[in-house]
Here is the input.
Amino acid sequence: MAKMFPDAANHPQRERKEWLGPVLCDIPLDKTDVNKDGIRDPALKHKARWGTKVQFGVLYKTGKNKRFF
Here is the structure.
């Protein structure tokens, strides 16, 4: 019988610490752009997505939150 979810407890990479939990990082988002109204209005949604993408790019280029990328 084939297992639907194979047992990954003995997987060699499971012993490394980065596989054990979620990655916690501080992502400073502009709360004026990312809010409920920004989700409803297509123009504001585009602005919020673009602003978030720019902020992630800055974090990536400066080398902050290496584990997130």
